[in-house]
Amino acid sequence: MEHLTQLDTLPAGLLDLPAACLHEILSGPTLIHLPGRRTPPLFVSVLLHGNEDTGWQAMQAVLRKCADGELPRALSLFIGNVAAARAGLRRLDGQPDYNRVWPGAEPPHPAEQAIMQQAVDAMRVRGVFASVDIHNNTGLNPHYACVNRLEPHFLHLATLFSRIVVYFVRPLGVQSAAFAELCPAVTVECGKPGTPGSVEHAADFVEACLHLAEFPVHAVAPHDIDLFHTVATVKVPEGASFGFGAPQADIDFVPELDHYNFRELGHGDVLGRVHPGSGVALKVTDEAGTDVGARLFDYRDGHIVLKKRLMPAMLTRDERVIRQDCLCYLMERIAYGG
């Protein structure tokens, strides 16, 4: 069984290294427990995807600020896919996605699942105040938070980061869903890596969590939240070619596709076209894993057309990410009454 490295102090020089150089000190996934004035600890995970380094830069900023003093709350920092970070990739070929192998995951990846299980077990023993998983994405998206439960503590945690909150139950095996069994848990999406202000926003959020004594017992005010529910995941079929403004491909998406993120699209809006005679269709599944493509998309006249009002998130033009993960998620607005 693979073992998770756990430390009680920050290794010398760690805070001076960019994500791509963490392998010089860390041999793999590492959980670092640091003391603070309050307990139980805040859990923060970064670099579950190796090319998403805003979280690591934010934690460097937070920990440098407290280098000569005490953290306001104990902190357990999980640093994930060090090998992929070295290569500047979401994951290496042959690796599973490090945010699909936490407890509750479907596909068997025993080595990585064992490591994530050890992280969850360690935090269950220590107790955990809240969990924050910091990510970037590859398309044009606003900063937003994601939760797996619509409970007040979860929504208060999420709205500390953004008024835009997305509720989802799939994909399975994500970090936030595993920690939702232990404490309020949130995933925060900080736009593209390198976007101005992203590191500062993530760092400010973590600091706010560290200073939080307790969660309010009242509901989040409806005017403080824009709440959405992920109802479908859209993937490109494995054997299909695709591109953006690529008329010879099986699927030719509109070149400006990633500009559709967090725009409420209506019936008849066109996402692209399928090559005549290819017989190709997007693979669309709902929360239960059921194929709902025929209910959501129409392919008449070769165009890929929405059949109902939906809002996409995480649309990207990064072909590697589309192959490794998905094209996008489709959401509906939830009327939130507090």
Chart the SSEs and their pairings.
Elements: E1 5-7, E2 30-34, E3 36-46, H1 54-65, E4 71-79, H2 82-87, H3 110-126, E5 130-135, E6 144-147, H4 152-159, E7 164-167, H5 175-179, E8 185-189, H6 198-211, E9 226-235, E10 242-244, E11 251-253, E12 270-274, E13 283-285, H7 293-296, E14 297-298, E15 303-306, E16 311-313, H8 319-324, E17 328-333
Parallel strand pairs: 1-2, 3-4, 3-5, 5-8, 6-7, 7-9, 10-11
Antiparallel strand pairs: 2-4, 6-8, 9-13, 9-17, 11-12, 12-15, 14-15, 16-17
Helix pairs in contact: 1-6
What does this structure look like?
This protein is an alpha/beta fold and 338 residues long. Helix 1 (54-65) links the parallel strand 3 (36-46) and strand 4 (71-79). The chain has helices at 54-65, 82-87, 110-126, 152-159, 175-179, 198-211, 293-296, 319-324, and strands spanning 5-7, 30-34, 36-46, 71-79, 130-135, 144-147, 164-167, 185-189, 226-235, 242-244, 251-253, 270-274, 283-285, 297-298, 303-306, 311-313, 328-333. The model has no long low-confidence stretch (mean pLDDT 96). It folds into two domains: 5-220, Aminopeptidase; 230-333, no CATH class. The strands form two sheets. Strands 1, 2, 3, 4, 5, 6, 7, 8, 9, 13, 16 and 17 form a twelve-stranded mixed sheet that branches. Strands 10-11-12-15-14 form a five-stranded mixed sheet. It is globular, with a radius of gyration of 20 Å. Helix 1 (54-65) packs across helix 6 (198-211).
